Amino acid sequence: MRLTTVIAVLSLWGSSSYATVYSSFLEGGAWQVKSSVFACSMVHSVPLYGDAVFETRAGEASHFYLQGNNSRFRQGSAALIAQAPVWAEQPRRVELAAVEVKQTRRAVELPTKDTERMLAELFGGQELVFTHDPRYGSENASQVAITSIGFRDAYQRYLTCLSGLLPANFDQIKRTAVYFGSSRFEGIRPSELHKLDNIVAYVKADPSVREFFIDGHADSIGSRDDNLLLSEKRAQEVTRYLVEKGVPQEAITSRWHGERYPVASNATAGGRDKNRRVTIRLEKLAVKRD
Predict the structure, then answer these.
(1) Cα 21 to Cα 46: distance, rounded to the nearest angstrom
(2) What is the pLDDT of residue 32?
(3) Which residue of 131, 153, 198, 199 could cross-link 168, Cys pair, CB 3.0 to 4.6 Å?
(4) pTM of the model
């Protein structure tokens, strides 16, 4: 029989009062790992609450969130606690953080520092508990508990997934600017090549990226005709690099604009640095909706 709401005496959790505890610990854990080159997630299902999710997207640091269809907590500040399971020989109860609770599906979201601490506690065999006042009804606290049962096997699969993530995600590359070092034509600077390599790695893994718009720009040093030619050469150089790395030529639209569209003032060296650029815009195939 599937575990539902558990009403437990909190002496089991380090206190003597009562609370409504949402947990899957009697089922022997409920961990799932979802893996791809785009993102890795480790999901712990909590009956009658929802999911506790550890997630890392390509190119980003890890984060954690609690997600449920119905919030069990009142808006405010909840305590995040690490504690020894009831069968442990040595009792332990440490408050890790005070966390903000929102009245949204993702009631709790935590940054990398807290996320990594939580993972370390679970790997060490500790349970994690979020405790706060309930949204409705009872004056007793509500708790969402995350068991370490079954965690280590899931964590190993999660780490394997992390090692295969792409260097960047689509949000990070869909608008990319490659900067050039002077007001004369030079090749792409080595320090900028990684941006193009990230684009190539992503589009090889995601066939839904179908169009590339490459726009060359220049600062205002020199004549307009020279700057137009300079921006053309820059756009062509970026196009050539992407095609050599495997991006289909027919998917690319190259344009050049000279000094017409500055993004910063050409009156300063810093502004001119920003204007000597090629921008790459990626577009995905539109998803048809019924």
Answers:
(1) 10
(2) 95
(3) 198
(4) 0.83
